[in-house]
Amino acid sequence: MGKRGEPLEVRDAHYPSMVQIDAYGNGGFRFADMSHRGSLMCVPSGVYGWEPKTFEEITDEALEQVLQESDGIEVLLIGAGDELKPFPEARKAPFREKGIMVDSMSTGAAVRTYNVLLGEDRAVAAVFIAVENT
């Protein structure tokens, strides 16, 4: 309960800018002196907690925000979890139409690639499935 018996307001996790990912594993991520348990989406408007827990849960709806912010994105990295899982070619079409290259890899490789591209001021977005082990 909040003040005066009011219910607490739970907000979606959101950090309002793109930042490097400092660490991953143990089911979450560390960035900007904070930690987040669960998967992440990094787009031009910031870093968001992201619902999918497995690669198979990455639906078109789960990626909708990437397409909505497509003006600021050239590359979408998909961190698929513990291992590389290819993103189906047919599902890449809406991204290609907006000039976005999609590349799927393990979450560890995606985090490292994201950090390099972000450090080079590249127009990158990423989604990362949380992993337990690093």
Description:
- The structure is a single chain.
- With 134 residues, the protein is an alpha+beta fold.
- It has a single domain, classed as 3-Layer(aba) Sandwich (Hypothetical Protein Mth938, Chain: A), CATH 3.40.1230.10.
- The chain is built from 3 helices and 9 strands, in the order ββββββαβαβαβ.
- It has helices at residues 64-68, 89-97, 107-119, and strands spanning 14-15, 23-25, 28-31, 34-37, 39-43, 46-50, 75-79, 101-105, 124-128.
- The chain has a 6-stranded mixed beta sheet, sandwiched between helices.
- The chain is globular and about 35 Å long.
- InterPro entries: MTH938-like_sf, NDUFAF3/AAMDC.
What structural keywords apply?
134 residues, alpha+beta, Hypothetical Protein Mth938, Chain: A, 6-stranded mixed β-sheet, 3-stranded antiparallel β-sheet, 20% helix, Mth938-like domain-containing protein, MTH938-like_sf, NDUFAF3/AAMDC
